[in-house]
Structures are given as structure tokens and as C-alpha cells.
Task: inverse folding
């Protein structure tokens, strides 16, 4: 690539030095041409509104990009003459671009075109920005906007800043509000995204506000421009706007300027890019193939208006896309995946009368308004966490007996969760997990805990003794040794990022252990003992991988081994089916999820079918350990306590799964065509899922499901189904078992059940007449926890008792 | 020219911070250059405990090479190689099981010699008896021999393709139903 006649020039090193403290993290070089671009700033959630309908809005990123010549071809003549300051960047090397989220993902074809057409010179059809029309948010214009006018006289479509969705803007607003001690902090100059774009630009180029037309900002104006649009004396508002930004320091705003403190920093895209480049590099190349089809899909989408298509095909955008390597593609996927798909979100989060009316028109009702009248609490009150004080208030001070109904408690916890810091979990979880009876007195609870402590010590002593004295049969000894190793291995890799499990401050007690050389801590040792005791206690099943994930949160909350052990035992009663040797419990849940998606979203189901993904294996991990690997620690605690209430369904976790799937259904349907793509995409949602909105969506989906079942039952003229009512008082935990439900029940047996729903789908989407509620689906309406009986565990557990 | 290959491998993630027991299945990708061909390999990783293997059919299907890794310091891990091989052939049911490419890797050679349980000779004999499976000894920890092993894995996978790949349609030619796409596109 290097032209032989251009020797390494001093400016090459100059360029390197001019990189800020970020190093070259943000600089992506094209692998073959060596040409690079450096992402100076980016802001997410900048939309183009091609039509008046919000659902056509296209989210994207606005970015300020510096083009860098290839390392080899840099020469002094290329370089701006004004290189007196190390911060100087020639304006001609700066690109202000807008890139739709969806196209960032790919554009392979376009890359190729650019690759062929040009390699060393800057884009030929570069648009010189003449001015920016800036409209801050105001009444009537909820989103602030910015229009780029080129020197050639063209205007690009307005870019709307959806600041409420943009993390960096939100953070910055909060920070400003704190600093100014003004909670509303908007005295006419509310901080918004476009504001920040102007500030970025001012660091590198001359930006002059037009005196004649205050909403116009001129970019690098020449004398003639200034005369026609010349600045007026600065008004208060302008002063505020330009606060800290000296108009003289146009070409290279100093980093120490007071304006800098208002910078929101990089958006998640950039931040994650840095991390991704180093942490996930291996995963990236695969992702590129996910998105290969994206560009074409965007370009072909008839809904994309011509202006946007032009914007996308404009060389600046292409350059940006071309130069950013697969890390960026990964991020696009990532950004898209976690992007609030605003239209769907609106459907599920904001309930206006108009929405309800619109939605109610359809027979099944695509929309569900959440039941607002639960007791006297408003919706927001219900979603507040239960504090220890509120919790204690529910109990009689003297006897310690619960004074409200268990259902009232469950409803509160289901919606609000428990306070994370005040110790209420330690109490309440014991009730939710059945260690304490709901109607017990303080004294009874104390007595029961004491006897359970004794029992735990006895059980623990059992295996301990055997370990010392030897086992009855060689097979048993072998099984035991294997299990012990497995437990130890898993405990040493379970939640080590959580404080209690992090330390390695004591030596390993067993010098023969494979882990003898690594340190351990008292909590890890307790974990091992509890799991070994469980292995002994439930020999028919034994320890299976995944169980350590289920115990860790319980132990961390209780920090008392005996109590945590029994809480875990009770939790395992419902989770046992996930760990059977024949995997029948997991298969049943995956099958139920299959039916649920067929019923609730047949279009998505057809797509998954075409992607060979209707085995729903990509939900295996989520279902096996109840989303433990998908959510952050505190969210797991919050989620589990909701699930333990069995408030709406004892299988509410399947609605959580559905909610996660629904949130991403558009992305999945548009971009993911193969089993491995779906699996990878869903696996990598881990850590990106917002719990609160997922819970709300899951509840709405449950309500919709409930109503769908009712509607279908009516159509089939079934006897009134034993669908539970909404009012908690009227909810005896009726199993709503399949046997009570006429014709549907006759098709029991999982395969047949699947068939019936499958047929309905095959016979045409929306052919409601054909829809049948399978027994698996009907079971979702039950609040009763299904537990395996002992004989079943013995037959399928795969433990030593078999 | 590039090619995508699917390789089944229990990936050792022990040295990364997010090391956790695998639940379900996941894969990493690795690119290897073989004679000017860029081969993108999907390295599939499934849960270790035996009972979770029954769900593995979907993950095994379409594999172009199967890598069996054992710990040279753990004779049990060596003893189970054969059953893993059989399990794979049953689950993946390739058209010609006799010629399906395997690679055996003895890992953890960084551990002191006194702890070593399986000699190179013994491992080689096993590989020979299974139709001449290529054998490597590696240290993932110290990155010894890893690249060499990957190159051979990639070559094996490519050879599988040239020998009339029964799965060549797996990555590339899943028909894309455009009509359906448009229907499904809600946004």
C-alpha cells in the first residue's frame, strides 16, 4: 500500500501523538487501505421522521468522525497547514454523519462498492455543510431537531433527538440538575442532544450563530456568509448556550474549557466498542454474518424514503460504515438488540384511552391494560419495593402472625419486589420459599428454624461420616467422588463477582482437592457443604450443574447455611424437573413455550420455524436457572421473588421468556435466519435486558394470554373454563387442570397437543376458529406449583438412588 | 475466499474473568487462514454434564469436524474419549461416519510431568486405532501448540467439504423466503 516515494514523515508520528488519552481505541483502520476514521463523538437515539406516523421513525446515531489518511500515505502536503496546535484537525477531515441503527449493522455490499471505487482520496461527493438549522425542544416540538444544510443548497431530513431514550443525555441532564441545585434545570435552556452536537462541532470548527436567523448556525462561514447572516450581539440565551465556549478557539477547543464538563462522554455504543474490541473480538466475525443481509434489507425497504436512502448512500456514511470493522457491526447488533423498539414499547408501556379503544376493537385484543384497582394502591405505589417497615407492619406485633392475607402479600411482592438493602428479603424469602408457614406465629417459626438447624447438621454429618469411613459400594464411592468434584468445580466458578463469594482468604481445607492450590473463603466452603448435603438429601437426583446458580442468591441473602439450605430444598422442589436425567421437565417447558409463541405470535413462530429454531433451545439456559445468567445479580433477586409468589401463574417464568422474545421479535424476524444466529443473538442478550419493563410486558402478555384463552373457549362453546378470576379473593389455587376441560383435555399427551396448535398455525394465521388451547397452555393459568413426586424423581433423576 | 465451518469443541474458558459453567450451548468463532482461504470456524461449546447431552442433537448437526479434548493429567477424561466419539457420531449421524474428521487434543501439558497420567504414546496409539485421528498436545494456558491444532482442525473441516460434504448446505444455502420476510417485517 505504501507509496515508495513518500518516506515516513514526521507528521506520521505527529498524528499518533495527537491522539488523545483514549489512545487509538476509537480509531478504526481499514484493514487493507490503512485508511482510518476516528470517532470523535456519537450520540444515540437520533431519529429521522420520514412520515408523520411515529411508527415509521428510524432510529440512528449522529456521529462526528475524523478521517485519517492511511498510515503509510500521510505526508506533509496532506496535512493541514495550520498544524500549530497538536489538537488541530482540518475541518475538511471532519464528517458529521447520521447512520441508521439498522444499517450500521452491515452494508457489506456497499462497502464493496466503496472499496472498488476509491481507496486513497477522500470521498468525492463530499457534502460541505453550510449551516445547521437547530430547533431545541419546546412546546409543540417535543423532540429537538437539527437540519443539515449543505453548501450545494440541499437539506437533509431533520434529525430528531429522542433525548428521553438517550442514555448519555439523560445522565448529563441529571448531572446538570445536581450541579445547579435546580431539579428542573431548564430555565429556558434545557439541556438536549442537539446542544451537545453543537458543542462538539465548536471544538473543531468555527460555528457562528446567525444574527438574522437565530436558529441557524453557520459552519466555517466565510466573510460573505457572515455579512448576510452576521451575528448579532449576544443575547442572554446565546450566552447560556455558548457558556464556556469561546468562539475564537474554533479549530480545536481545548479539553479544559469549562464546556467540557458538560460533555456527556461517549454513548454506550462507543464505550462498548472499546470493551468489545478487547473482550469480545473472537465473537465478532460471526456477528458480521448475522447482519450481512441487513443493508440490503434496509435499502430495499419501500418504507425508507428517498432522502434517507440518499443520506445512507452519501459517501460520508459509507466511509464510516466501511472503515469500522466488525466490532462496530457487533455493536450495531448490540445497539439494535437493546434498542427500545419504540413502537412496541409504546404499546406496552403507555396506556392512553385512545390506545385502549383502538386495541379493544380486535377480537382477542392485542393490547392489555393492566388491572389498576388492586386494593387502594395506585400503580406506582404498587411498583414500589416492600420495605422492612411495611413488611413488619403486616404482622401482629405480639404474636407475630400475619394480619393480611398471603395473597395480599404476594401481590405486593409480585409487583413491587422487596427492598434490596434493608434486610426484608431475609425474612420474606423464607415465607415465599415455604420455610415459614404463612399463618405461623413468631414462636412457631423460631421452633421450626431450630429443628431445621438440627436436621441440617444431622444430614451434613451423614455424608461427612461416610466420607471418612468409606462407602458401601465402589459404585457409590465413585459417584460420590464425582459429585464432590463437580460441586467443587462449580462453586469455584459461581458468582465470584459477588462480594461474599469473591475472596480467597483461607487455604483450601482438603489438600487432595484439585482446587487445593487456589484459595477459598468461608462462604464458598458453606456453598460446597450445602450442595453436598443436598446431593445426599436428594440422592435420586443428586447435584446437577446449574444448581449452584440457584443456591448462590439464597445463601447470599440468608448468610446462614442451615436456613439457606432449607430454603434451597424448597426451591428445588419446583426446579427439580429441570435437572432430570431424561430432561423431560425441560422438554415440557420448551414445548409449552413453543405452544405459547404459536398462540400469541404466529408470525414470529413461522419465522422461527423457517430458522429451524422451534425447538426453542435458545431459551434453555434462561429456563434452566430462571434467567440467572441473563440479569444482573440484584435483578435476579428481584425477579425470583416475583416468580416465587406464583401470583398470576406458577409458570410465570415462561411469560418472562415470552416478554424477552417479543421485545426482540422485530429484530429476530428481520435479521436472524438460522438456528445458530438466533442462538447467538439470544445468548448475547445476557446483561442487556431491562428487568422492570420485562416484568410489565410479561404481565401484559399474561393478561392477553388469559383473554385469548377465554375468547377461544367461548368460540369453541366449551363449558365455562376454570380460568381463574383476577380478583385475588376469588382465587383458590385451582389447578385448572386439563382433565376438567372437555375436548382440549382429550388431546392430552404432549405431541398431540403440539399438533393441535401447529395445525391451527398451518391452516392460516389468524384462523382463530382453528386455535386450540393445548393442555400445556391451559396449565399456564394455574397458580399451583407442579412438583414431581418421589417415584418420578427416582425413575428419571439419574442420581445414585436410581 | 472464505469458508465457514462448524467445529464441536468443549471450549476452555477458565482463564477469562467470566468463567462459568456452560448451560445450554454457545459458540465462539475463530478465523484461521489456510492456504489463502479464510476459514471461519464456529467453536461450539455445550454443557459438560452428561444428562444435558441429550439436547445436543441440534448443536451437533452440521458439524464439519469434531475435536475431542482431554486432560493429559486425568485418565478418566482420556478413557471417555471413545464414548464421546460414539455419542457424537450417533447424534450428528454424518453420512460417512468412518471418514468423518476428528482431532484429538491432549491439553494441560503445562502441568508438571509427575502429574501426567496419559503418555503421548498411549494417546497416539488410541488415535491410530481410530483410523489415524490427528493428535495434538497443547497448553491452552500457555498457548502452546494451539494455533497449529486449529490449523489442522480447519484443514480437516475443509477436507470434509471437498469429500462431498453432506452438510454443505448448513451454513450457506438456507433458502430465504423473501415474501415471508416482507410479511413479517412489522416496522
Result:
Amino acid at each position: 500500500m505504501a507509496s515508495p516515494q513518500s518516506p515516513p514523515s514526521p507528521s506520521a508520528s505527529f498524528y499518533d501523538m495527537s491522539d488523545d488519552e483514549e489512545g487509538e481505541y476509537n480509531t478504526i483502520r481499514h484493514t487493507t487501505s490503512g485508511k482510518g476514521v476516528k470517532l470523535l463523538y456519537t450520540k444515540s437515539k437520533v431519529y429521522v421522521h420520514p412520515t408523520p406516523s411515529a411508527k415509521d421513525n428510524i432510529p440512528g446515531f449522529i456521529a462526528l468522525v475524523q478521517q485519517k489518511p492511511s498510515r503509510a500515505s500521510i505526508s506533509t502536503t496532506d496535512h493541514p497547514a495550520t498544524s500549530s496546535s497538536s489538537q488541530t484537525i482540518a475541518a475538511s477531515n471532519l464528517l458529521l454523519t447520521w447512520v441508521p441503527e439498522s444499517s450500521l449493522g452491515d452494508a457489506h455490499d456497499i462497502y464493496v462498492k466503496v472499496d472498488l471505487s476509491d481507496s486513497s482520496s477522500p470521498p468525492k461527493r463530499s457534502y460541505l455543510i453550510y449551516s445547521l438549522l437547530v430547533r431545541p425542544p419546546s412546546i409543540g416540538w417535543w423532540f429537538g431537531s437539527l437540519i443539515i444544510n449543505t453548501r450545494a443548497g440541499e437539506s437533509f431530513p431533520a434529525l430528531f433527538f429522542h433525548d428521553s431514550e438517550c442514555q448519555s443525555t439523560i445522565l448529563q441532564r441529571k448531572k446538570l440538575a445536581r450541579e445547579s441545585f435546580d431539579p428542573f434545570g431548564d430555565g429556558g435552556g434545557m439541556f438536549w442532544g442537539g446542544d451537545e452536537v453543537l458543542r462538539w462541532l465548536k471544538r473543531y470548527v468555527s460555528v457562528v450563530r446567525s444574527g438574522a436567523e437565530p436558529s441557524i448556525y453557520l459552519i466555517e462561514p466565510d466573510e460573505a456568509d457572515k455579512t448576510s447572516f452576521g451575528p448579532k450581539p449576544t443575547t442572554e440565551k446565546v450566552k447560556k448556550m455558548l457558556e464556556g465556549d469561546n468562539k475564537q478557539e474554533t479549530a480545536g477547543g481545548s479539553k479544559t474549557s469549562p464546556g467540557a464538563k458538560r460533555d456527556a462522554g461517549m454513548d454506550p455504543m462507543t464505550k462498548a466498542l472499546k470493551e468489545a474490541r478487547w473482550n469480545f473480538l473472537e465473537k465478532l466475525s460471526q456477528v458480521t454474518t448475522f447482519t450481512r443481509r441487513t443493508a440490503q434489507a434496509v435499502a430495499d425497504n419501500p418504507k425508507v424514503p428517498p432522502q434517507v436512502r440518499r443520506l445512507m448512500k452519501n459517501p460520508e456514511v459509507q466511509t464510516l460504515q466501511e472503515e469500522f470493522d466488525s466490532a462496530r457491526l457487533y455493536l450495531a447488533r448490540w445497539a439494535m438488540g437493546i434498542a427500545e423498539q419504540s413502537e412496541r414499547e409504546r404499546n406496552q408501556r403507555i396506556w392512553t384511552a385512545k390506545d385502549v379503544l383502538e386495541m379493544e376493537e380486535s377480537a382477542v385484543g392485542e393490547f392489555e391494560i393492566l388491572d389498576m384497582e388492586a386494593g387502594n394502591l395506585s400503580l406506582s405505589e404498587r411498583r414500589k419495593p416492600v420495605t422492612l417497615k411495611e413488611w413488619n407492619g403486616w404482622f401482629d406485633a405480639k404474636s407475630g402472625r400475619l394480619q393480611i392475607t398471603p395473597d395480599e402479600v404476594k401481590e405486593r411482592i409480585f409487583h413491587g419486589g422487596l427492598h434490596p438493602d434493608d434486610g426484608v428479603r431475609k425474612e420474606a424469602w423464607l415465607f415465599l420459599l415455604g420455610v415459614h408457614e404463612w399463618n405461623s406465629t413468631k414462636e412457631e417459626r423460631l421452633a421450626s428454624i431450630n429443628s431445621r438447624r438440627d436436621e441440617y447438621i444431622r444430614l451434613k454429618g451423614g455424608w461427612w461420616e461416610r466420607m471418612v469411613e468409606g462407602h458401601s459400594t465402589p459404585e457409590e464411592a465413585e459417584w460420590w467422588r464425582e459429585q464432590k468434584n463437580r460441586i467443587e468445580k462449580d462453586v469455584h466458578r459461581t458468582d465470584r463477582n459477588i462480594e461474599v463469594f469473591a475472596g480467597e482468604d483461607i487455604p483450601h481445607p482438603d489438600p487432595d482437592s484439585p482446587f487445593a492450590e487456589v484459595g477459598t473463603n468461608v462462604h464458598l466452603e458453606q456453598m460446597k457443604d450445602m450442595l453436598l448435603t443436598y446431593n445426599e438429601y436428594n440422592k435420586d437426583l443428586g447435584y446437577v450443574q446449574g444448581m449452584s446458580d440457584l443456591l448462590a442468591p439464597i445463601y447470599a441473602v440468608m448468610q446462614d447455611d442451615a436456613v439457606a439450605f432449607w430454603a434451597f430444598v424448597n426451591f428445588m422442589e419446583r426446579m427439580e424437573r429441570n435437572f432430570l436425567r431424561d430432561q423431560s421437565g425441560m422438554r415440557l417447558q420448551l414445548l409449552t413455550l413453543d405452544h405459547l409463541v404459536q398462540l400469541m405470535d404466529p408470525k414470529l413462530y413461522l419465522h422461527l420455524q423457517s430458522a429451524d429454531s422451534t425447538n426453542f433451545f435458545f431459551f434453555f439456559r434462561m429456563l434452566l436457572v430462571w434467567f440467572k445468567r441473563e440479569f444482573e445479580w440484584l435483578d435476579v433477586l428481584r425477579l425470583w421473588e416475583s416468580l416465587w409468589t406464583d401470583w398470576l401463574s406458577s409458570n410465570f417464568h415462561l411469560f418472562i421468556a415470552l416478554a424477552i422474545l417479543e421485545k426482540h421479535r422485530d429484530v429476530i424476524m428481520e435479521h436472524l435466519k438460522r438456528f445458530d444466529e438466533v442462538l447467538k443473538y439470544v445468548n448475547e442478550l445476557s446483561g442487556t435486558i431491562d428487568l422492570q419493563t420485562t416484568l410489565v410486558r410479561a404481565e401484559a402478555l399474561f393478561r392477553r394470554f388469559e383473554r385469548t384463552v377465554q375468547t377461544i373457549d367461548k368460540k369453541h362453546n366449551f363449558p365455562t373454563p376454570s380460568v381463574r378470576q383476577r380478583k385475588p379473593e376469588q382465587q383458590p389455587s385451582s389447578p385448572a387442570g386439563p382433565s376438567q376441560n372437555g375436548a382440549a383435555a382429550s388431546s392430552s399427551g404432549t405431541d398431540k397437543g403440539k399438533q393441535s396448535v401447529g395445525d391451527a398455525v398451518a391452516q392460516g394465521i389468524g384462523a382463530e376458529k382453528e386455535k386450540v388451547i393445548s393442555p400445556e397452555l391451559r396449565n399456564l393459568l394455574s397458580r399451583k406449583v407442579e412438583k414431581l413426586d418421589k417415584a418420578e424423581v427416582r425413575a428419571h433423576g439419574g442420581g445414585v438412588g436410581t | 475466499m472464505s469458508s465457514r465451518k462448524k467445529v464441536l469443541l468443549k471450549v476452555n474458558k477458565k482463564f477469562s474473568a467470566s468463567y462459568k459453567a456452560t448451560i445450554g450451548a454457545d459458540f465462539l468463532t475463530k478465523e484461521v487462514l489456510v492456504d489463502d482461504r479464510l476459514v471461519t470456524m464456529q467453536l461450539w461449546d455445550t454443557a459438560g454434564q452428561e444428562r444435558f447431552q441429550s439436547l445436543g442433537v441440534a448443536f451437533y448437526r452440521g458439524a464439519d469436524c469434531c475435536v475431542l479434548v482431554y486432560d493429559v493429567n486425568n485418565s478418566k477424561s482420556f478413557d471417555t474419549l471413545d464414548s464421546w466419539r460414539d455419542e457424537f457420531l450417533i447424534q450428528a449421524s454424518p453420512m460417512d461416519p468412518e471418514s468423518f474428521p476428528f482431532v484429538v487434543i491432549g491439553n494441560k501439558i503445562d502441568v508438571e510431568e509427575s502429574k501426567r497420567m496419559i503418555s503421548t504414546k498411549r494417546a497416539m496409539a488410541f488415535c491410530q486405532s481410530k483410523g489415524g485421528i490427528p493428535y495434538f498436545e497443547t497448553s491452552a494456558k500457555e498457548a502452546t501448540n494451539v494455533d497449529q491444532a486449529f490449523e489442522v482442525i480447519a484443514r480437516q473441516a475443509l477436507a470434509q467439504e471437498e469429500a462431498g460434504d453432506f452438510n454443505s448446505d448448513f451454513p450457506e444455502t438456507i433458502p430465504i423466503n423473501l415474501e415471508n420476510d416482507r410479511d413479517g417485517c412489522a416496522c
